[in-house]
Amino acid sequence: MNTKYPTIKKCLFPAAGYGTRFLPATKAIPKEMLPVLTKPLLQYGVEEALAANINTIAIVTGRGKRAIEDHFDISYELEHQIKGTSKEHYLTEIRSLITKCTFSYTRQVEMKGLGHAILSGETLIGHEPFAVVLADDLCDGNSHGVLAQMVSLYEKHGCTVVAIEEVPREQTYKYGVIAGEEIEEGVYRVSDMVEKPDPKDAPSNLAIIGRYILTPDIFDIIRDTKPGKGGEVQITDAILEQAKQGRVLAYKFKGKRFDCGSVDGFVEATNYFYAKSES
Fold first, then answer.
1. Which domains does the chain have, with CATH numbers?
2. 0.85 exceeded by the pTM?
3. Is 180 exposed, middle or buried (0-12, 13-18, 19+ CB in 10 A)?
4. Does residue 272 contact residue 257 with C-beta atoms inside 8 Å?
């Protein structure tokens, strides 16, 4: 392991959004708590962070998100009820996470975009590099998690890293899209980033997905970033400022990603993980 750059010890989970595409299910349940099989989306993300040796978990929540805090806490009544029964093993995984990780929370008071959500987490992160996971992008890196792959790249280069995948060009309007030079297989030095471009204007079909390693100067950059597409503070615009100085890599990760912010992706993920559990 390269020790010349600060170690990634914290992972930020922006989890304040309304999940309107899953209404009415998300009227009272945070979208991050929707289960794929028997685990909520957010738990998959925390497990991915822990697999990358990141055990300080910072979560940006909002009103109506108390279920998140309750999930990553001990339920003494439930544990007492099932202790010594055949159902006790169902809590093994979550108890392990609670034991191994430290959880802290803050609220995003206004919904002003992903950039603003990340800035809201500054008080939990401090002045150090950190990971960001968007829980509704559910990733399966098979034997080596996506975040662990990205941490390895950060340890080599010491700069911001964004995860990318190829998407059909007609779908670039859904994503931040990068342009850059491939410096090694699957790794690009980013020269430009565009938030949700029309397909005809997209610089490539390499789309950013919900995994980031960010250096701490990003907070000051976000503070100076004007609202962009949709009147929101876009993290893509902030990272572009780093990219102009040659300090951003895009990584075509190894694994599979599901857009669980959409019903189609959620169903696809459920079927995939069910088949995997039965194999």
1. 10-278 (3.90.550.10)
2. yes
3. buried
4. no
